[in-house]
Protein 1
Amino acid sequence: MTTHLHITAWVIGIILFFVTYSMLKSGNPKAKMLHMITRLFYLLIFLTGGMLITDFGAYAVKMIVGIIVIAAMEMVLVRTKKRKSTSAMWILFIVALVFVVYLGLSLPQGLYFFK
Ligand code: HEM
């Protein structure tokens, strides 16, 4: 159940991240509001992820990489807003995202693809 909440939180969070990104790019004044909602989802991702932690030892890496994904999303948005280069943050986002999904699916709760 909580794994579904967690998946819902990060799927919506990532969609909002892309919407906010394209709004910032096109100078849409609503981008500010979307950015706030995206940040609310960072919190939801973190809280639902936190609810899944049963054993800190096994989950510490998952948690750190999850936080790196969120940090990379926020850095992409802030740097886009400031018209700074975002390539390094995009690479961090993609690499950390692939890694965190792999970790999530190799850990025992919910979907358990990579045993
Ligand atoms: C955007 C960031 C994140 C993504 C894309 C992500 C992705 C995933 C995925 C794919 C799963 C597996 C779900 C399942 O097996 O049904 C999962 C589970 C989990 N996530 Fe995240 N996660 C993110 C952030 C976080 C954060 C910040 C935390 C910690 C605070 C966290 C903690 C956990 C825990 C403890 C599990 C359960 C693992 C298990 O035993 O299966 N996640 N996550």
Note: The two ends are 20 Å apart (CA to CA).
Protein 2
Amino acid sequence: MHLYIHIPFCKQACHYCDFHFSTNTANKRAVVEAIAREIVLRQAYLPDGDMQTIYFGGGTPSMLDEAELNFLLETIHRQFRVAPNAEITLEANPDDLNAATLQMFSQAGINRLSIGIQSFHEPHLRFMNRAHSALEAEQCVRLAQHAGIDNISIDLIYAIPSENHAILQSDLSKAFTLGVPHISAYCLTIEPQTAFGSWLKKKKIQPIEEEYAAQQFEILVGSLRENGYEQYEISNFARNGHYSNHNSSYWKQHPYLGVGPSAHSYNGASREYNISNNAKYLQAIQNSIIPAMIETLSPADQTNEYLLTGLRTKWGVQLQKLEVLSAGRFALQAGDELGRMTRKGWIREDAGILLLTQAGKLFADRIASDLFID
Ligand code: SF4
């Protein structure tokens, strides 16, 4: 069983971000109390079993104070059986990490940090409106390691407009020097409802060129491979098997419960999407109503979701499972397209499992959507 907790607050809006968050923290305590109440209301959502992973995401969960974090964790432990070796991750921003907060997180039971570094290059941090400096980005990882939290993931963003690839290479070198066991690397995308989206409309910035993004991706993958990181998902790299168990559970389609504004849940048959509005979320939970939209998944939805997430991973997708999910329609509908992809060298079959080739990884989402059934 897996639990996601969305903490919908940030200090400031990064120019690229379209996640749900608010910079007004006046009702932070009330939202935390509502999330705890939702955990109680949703206790029966998941089938019986130990909670294997707990993930505090956001927003910026490192903005939780000691009382708020402990209150949420105590509620979780009261409502669920948490496995003794459960992976408990907290997303943190460098500017929130110091010796005192790191000790507090560790004492609360956080055993994995996912740090939103994005870049070690000061002008890139300013361009994206990150709240931390390049120096803080570097120092916080060392501080965390010093505090005994070794299971660290850092987020990096690539394809940030730049004259050449030197800054990306320098970002990667810094990450390697720090010796973190996990790196998530995401391509900069310009979403309409963001500052970058509005600048693009006003032509204050240029769109990210596909070719430049592809070159950066190749540099990134090659460099990570040379330094001992395994690409176990298109955007996720681990050394010595330090995979994110929580995110892997999404990709393997295990059931999970998501609580908090904008959180999603999945039980194998349907997905639920909590409302992305803190005030409305608060009001509903105070009336014991879960403010979620429920989407029942058809056989085609289940097949297509499995393709979209599974093909991105090193575990690939099982042909037999595709047939079961699609009620026997996958080969009939997608067989020709699959043949074309195989001949192009983008996909290969190994003992009944479909896997992307290195060339195919450049077009993972397009390949999956071309194989979608209806
Ligand atoms: S990227 Fe993270 S810190 Fe920045 S606005 Fe989005 S959720 Fe907040």
Note: The chain has two domains: 2-251, 299-370.
Protein 3
Amino acid sequence: MDYNYLYMTSQSKEEFSIRLKEMFSYTRFFHSQLGRLSVAAFNKGVLSTYHSEFEESLISNVIEFKPIRLLLSSSLSELINNKKIRFVDDLNDMPKTQHIRMLTDAGFMSSLSFPIVDNDKVVGVVFFNAKQKSYFSSEKIKSDFIFLASLVSSMFVQVIYERKSYQQLLDVALKIGHHRDPETSQHLKRMGMYSELLARLLAEDIPEITTEFIHRIKFYAPFHDIGKYRIPDAVLFSNAVFSDKERSIMNMHPIYGEEIIDNVIAISKIKNGQSEDIMFLKNIIRSHHEAFDGSGYPDGLVGQAIPLESRIVTVADVFDALLSKRAYKDSWSLTEVKKFFIRNSKKLFDPVCVEKLLCNIDKFVEIRNDFDDSREMLTSNRSF
Ligand SMILES: [Fe+2]
Ligand SMILES: [Fe+2]
């Protein structure tokens, strides 16, 4: 293997997933046994896949991306605590967790796991899998993969750093905004997760949805209503039916939200306020109340003219709002919610998003149950 070529590829200006894809196929040219290369982020005890490459589409994108909470006793926890590379010569000897079963079902026999360390802390793991037992234990093969893993690891640390500076600032803005937002913080968490899930499901048919798209929507969906913090209390916390005037005040929140982001950018050190990330975030904030038939606000955009990220967030937001109990309304049953989406497909919602939601409704309900509101005090809330 030409290490220099791999190094140059890792340093190119392409997006992370494009560089990884190229490095994976280059490595497979020399090591055809390599069937999977996966990079997972590790944060607060939870491992979540960032990007995976497979020899063929062996494993469903959606199963693979379920975050895993690591058990203290697992061998991966040991890898994270000791920051040591782990070799598994036969995956059949491992405890049969859902994740291991997914790998063995796909025919994988061995693995190499490499901790990604930044500032003495494990921030992720690089995984390699092969269909041959003990594949990574051979000395010659081992060195190629350790070299590749260190390149991938520094690429990943670089990705984290690039986003860290302004994401921290945005997080502060979200916390300040949320302080007087009647929404529960669980709603914000669920918004990231539903939107991510919907994007992953859509990715099977829509090439525009890249790994970067998925990570962006997961991180930025919770910001959709940040503009609400400029809405006066009398309107924001009202449980009565809105007058026309109150409605028009409330409908300003997407525009206020965009202005808040502009202010955050102005006080931060972000050089490029028009970067793809910022545009993506602003699209979510400005257009999450647009309707597919053009009857939404603030711009009355129609169909595909509404950014895809906004169409996804709209479906996630309404799905969550309908299932939630609020001071002015009861929660709806799942049957009623499904009927509402069927009735409003092509009207309020992108029909493709509705179809994915309805065909995979159990997965969305699972998120809902895992992050329910029960421990938070509920006040009024109007999501749409
Ligand atoms: Fe909103
Ligand atoms: Fe919302």
Note: The beta strands are 34-43, 46-54, 68-69, 86-88, 110-118, 121-130.
